[in-house]
Amino acid sequence: MQAKDLFPPSARFVYLRTGDDGDLSNYLELHPEERSLVARAVDKRKGEFGDARWCAHRALAELGVPPGRAILKGDSGMPLWPEGFVGSLSHTEGLRAAVAAPASQLLSVGLDVEPAEALPEGVIDQISRSGERHRIDAMQAGGAHWAGRLLFSAKEATYKCWFPLTRRWLGFEDAEIDIRADGTFIAYILARPTPAPLMYGRWVVRGGYVFASAFLERAS
C-alpha cells in the first residue's frame, strides 16, 4: 500500500505487520524517554507501542528528521511530534501504522486501522447517526460485511485529527461521516466551536484490515 491511497502527497505512511505481540525488539530500540512511557506495562503493550513508534520514526526519517527524537505523550495520550511536524499512530492485532507530515502542509492528520470484520452486535447503534446507518446498511447489503467497522475507523481517524487542534473530546455523535464508494469520505463536524466544519478522509480495505485517514490541509 502507498501513502497516496490514504494521504496527500506531503505525508509519509509506514506500516508493519507483526505475528508476535510479545516481540520487544522495536521497543528496546526506542529512546529511553519513550520506553519509560510504558515501562510498567505488560509485554504485549510494550511490543505494540514499540512497533508503532518504529513506524513513526521511519515516517519522520523519510521527511528528513534526524534519528533520536523522542515522540512523547501529551493530553489524553496524544503523541507529541517534533516541532514542525504532525502525525498519527494506530495499532491493532497484527498490524501497526503511523503517518507523519510537515505542519507547513497539513494542519492535522488522523489514522486508524481496524480488522476488516463485522462490529460486535449492538455497537453500530452506539456509534452511528441515522444517516450514517442507512449508508452502512446499504453497504452491508452489497456484501461489505466490514462496513460498520469502516464507520468506526473513520470516526476514530476524525477524532485523532480533531483533538490536537482543540484538546477537546469529540463523541461519535459529534461527527457525521459521509462514506463514498470511491474510497473517500467527508467528516462533517457537528460540535461547536470547531477549527473546521469538515475534514476530508480516505479509506482502504486491504489484506484483512480497514485503513481510514482524516486530514486538514493548510491553505496555500
Give the fraction of residues assigned to helices: 25-40%
| Spatial ordering of strands, largest sheet | 6-10-9-8-7
* Structural class by helix and strand composition: alpha+beta
CATH class of the largest domain: Alpha Beta
The helix tally amounts to 6
Name the average pLDDT. Answer: 94
CATH architecture annotation of the largest domain: Alpha-Beta Complex
* Portion in beta strands: 25-35%
> What is the alpha-carbon Rg in Å?
17 Å
GO molecular function: holo-[acyl-carrier-protein] synthase activity; magnesium ion binding
Keywords: Magnesium, Metal-binding, Transferase
Cofactor: Mg(2+)
InterPro entries: 4-PPantetheinyl_Trfase_dom, 4-PPantetheinyl_Trfase_dom_sf, 4PPT_N, Enbac_synth_compD-like
Structure explained in plain terms:
Keywords: Magnesium, Metal-binding, Transferase. Its cofactor is Mg(2+). One of its GO terms (molecular function) is magnesium ion binding. Mg(2+) binds at residues 112, 114. It comes from Corynebacterium liangguodongii. The mean pLDDT is 94. The radius of gyration is 17 Å and the shape is globular. The strands form three sheets. Strands 6-10-9-8-7 form a five-stranded antiparallel sheet. Strands 1-5-4 form a three-stranded antiparallel sheet, with helices on one face. The chain has two domains: 3-102, Ribosomal Protein L22, Chain A (Alpha-Beta Complex); 112-217, Ribosomal Protein L22, Chain A. With 220 residues, the chain is α+β, with helices and mostly antiparallel strands. It has helices at 25-28, 32-36, 43-62, 123-127, 130-141, 147-166; strands spanning 12-17, 72-73, 79-80, 85-92, 95-102, 106-115, 175-179, 184-189, 198-206, 209-217. The longest helix is centred in the N-terminal third of the chain and has 20 residues, at 43-62. The two termini are 28 Å apart.
